[in-house]
Amino acid sequence: MRILLVTPVVPCPANTGGRQRTNLIHRALCELAEVDTFVIAGEPDISDEHREILSSDFNVVSFCPPQQTSEIGWPRHLRWIHPPTVNRVVNVLMPDRQFTLPQPKVKAAVDAIFSRRSYDVVVARYLSAAVATGLLGRDRLAVDVDDLPTATISSRLAAGGDPPVRQWYLRRVRSRLAEIERHQLNRCGHVWVAKEADAASVGNPSCSVLRNIPFTEPGQPEAWDMELPGHSQSHILLTVGMLNYAPNVAGIDGFLKHAWPSIFKTVPSAEYRIVGSRLAAETKTRWERYPGVTVVGFAADLQAEYRQAAASVCPIPWGGGTNIKVAESLAYGRPAIVSAPAHRGWERIFPESKCVFVAREPVDFVHHCVELLRNPKRRQQMGTEGRLAARQWVSYDAFRKAVAAGVHAALESPRP
Length: 416
Prior knowledge:
This protein is an alpha/beta fold.
């Protein structure tokens, strides 16, 4: 059997949640068949060093940069005015184009691959990749949705804070996208989503949950098998995430403004460490103005950060999918204080007050953070419960089995 993996998110270096999920899916697919990879990205997104690794370790057979919607069809004749502005206007006035148009250059690159060899199944990371390549409805196709775009928009609208015009636009896009999304998902042989709530909203009967799991390199022990004893004297709160991702930035900004000053005043020995890739210099400067805050940026040894932490904080105000950093923290035995959006998808696995504290208001973050900083016994209990739950529900073994079941379901689907 031969599989083509189509992805706009590279599997290497595995330094973001999206890249880690691509890496894990590729690893699971390689246990089933020979796998070729087509990457919808190009320079300057991929360095020469990483391009070589992708070609040798992930059998990338072709790279192709994505096209903007204003580069397709008649809008391309207007791009001479100002390409970013024209693209923005086209997306606002005709949002359907973002979700329905194959990208000619990307489609041509995939057609060239198919002219050289055939595939039993195509696996696409995100519905947008299946659309861009023109593969939707053409071959036996399994799509990893991960984040349903409609769910992400709904979460942002529920959070509020956007200007009225922006809210009107988001509601308009969601209304159109819901219909498009439903139709497109029904044309797939199988659909993976990250949480049960999304599975319930997908009309395709061949749909399963493929949970985000803590990432480890092949051959390395999973997080809950590592020796990482709790630090009873620690007063460190830790946030881990991609630091140019809008929900992460907004969440940390809100936590620092509305909760951290009270936490630091109550527990003067407290330290808030912010760890993650893609940190802008101006963002680092803004966050470091708060006393007791250490902005680490990229950390080569993430285990060391968890080892010294008392608990983690995930304060995102909106977003889709599931937040892998919640599961990662618990897998390392560190309880998490999370916003309600960050807890979505983990409610059954990591129950509130048993493994995590859920903060629905800034004052809740203050109360829960102070509680765990002052009560080592409580955080040890919650960390232990979380680690047991992570071992049961978010292992690589469970992940690879879900991938295998989805591929077999796609194989059994009627060929279009």
